[in-house]
Structures are given as structure tokens and as C-alpha cells.
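Exercise 7b. C-alpha cells:
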């Protein structure tokens, strides 16, 4: 029941604020993104990145304060009291959220590594990391997320997703 409500919230938020789902580029190459480098700034370093309230895998492009407040509320929905959302100047910045979705244990992570501007789009590189078989992990459900700001752009944002496994000895 709770997961159904959460899914409905995610879908409602996407329909209400994040008007288009960003495209995911399946031809990921960890090398050069091409284009001109775009500055990527972490929005909130203290965020408990492994334990967000974003249970579904998503790449979100947030372009308004109202969207930002809703996404922030969802990220912190299991924390009481939740911290206030960091102030973002949406006339100058766009927020990019990369969420891995719910995982049965800890040990996973996600990070927006870099971004590049092209003539007709911006590419954002995201790396998702999972723990290898020999790694010790917490036995708690996790939902890794990373949140960055990039300079505002009228161009569509595309995501390149890499999935890696961290090996432990």
C-alpha cells in the first residue's frame, strides 16, 4: 500500500512539474562527453545519499522552486524533521537529480560525474555503483541519490548512465 502511494506521488510529481522525462543515452562511454564542459555543483553535501525517499530509479530535471520543493520533500520523506530545501536561483540554475531507486541493502551509490553542452542538448554523465559479492553491506533498504546544479539551459538534458560494481577483497 505504501509503495503504491509512493509510486502515485512520483507519477503525480512527474506529471505536474517535471514535464518531460529526460532521455537516457544507451550508448554510454565513460570517456569524453564531447561538447563544452558544463560546471556541476553538488547541491547538498550532507544529504544522506544512500537513504533517500526516492524509491524508483529516476533522472529528474528540476526547473522551478515548486518542483524543487516537491522533489526535496520526497527525498527527505523518512526524516523527521526534514531540513529545509537549499535555496536555488532557478533563473540561473537547473537542478539535476539522479536516483538509483530502492535497493535491498546498503553499499550502492550514485554520482553525477560531469556534464557537457552540445549544439542541441546537454549530456549529464551519471555513474551508479553497486557493491560486489565480497563487500560487506548494511542490511537496510537504501535508495541512493545525488543532486547537483548546472547552469540553466533551454536545451534538453540527456543522461548517460554507467553501472559499475565495486569489488572488495
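Sequence design result:
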Amino acid at each position: 500500500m505504501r509503495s503504491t502511494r509512493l509510486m502515485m506521488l512520483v507519477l503525480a510529481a512527474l506529471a505536474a512539474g517535471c514535464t518531460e522525462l529526460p532521455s537516457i543515452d544507451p550508448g554510454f562511454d565513460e570517456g569524453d562527453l564531447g561538447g563544452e564542459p558544463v560546471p556541476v555543483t553538488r547541491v547538498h553535501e550532507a544529504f544522506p545519499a544512500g537513504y533517500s525517499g526516492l524509491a524508483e530509479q529516476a533522472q529528474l530535471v528540476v526547473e522551478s522552486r515548486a518542483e524543487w520543493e516537491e522533489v526535496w520533500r520526497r527525498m527527505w520523506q523518512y526524516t523527521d524533521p526534514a531540513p529545509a530545501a537549499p535555496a536555488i536561483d532557478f533563473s540561473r540554475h537547473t537542478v539535476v537529480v539522479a536516483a538509483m531507486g530502492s535497493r535491498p541493502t546498503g553499499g550502492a551509490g550514485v554520482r553525477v560525474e560531469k556534464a557537457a553542452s552540445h549544439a542541441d542538448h546537454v549530456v549529464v554523465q551519471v555513474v551508479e555503483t553497486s557493491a560486489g559479492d565480497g563487500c560487506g553491506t548494511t542490511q537496510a533498504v537504501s535508495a541512493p541519490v545525488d543532486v547537483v546544479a548546472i547552469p540553466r539551459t533551454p536545451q534538453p538534458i540527456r543522461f548517460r548512465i554507467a553501472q559499475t560494481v565495486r569489488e572488495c577483497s
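Instructor comment: Residues 2-16 form the longest helix (15 residues). The two ends are 40 Å apart (CA to CA).
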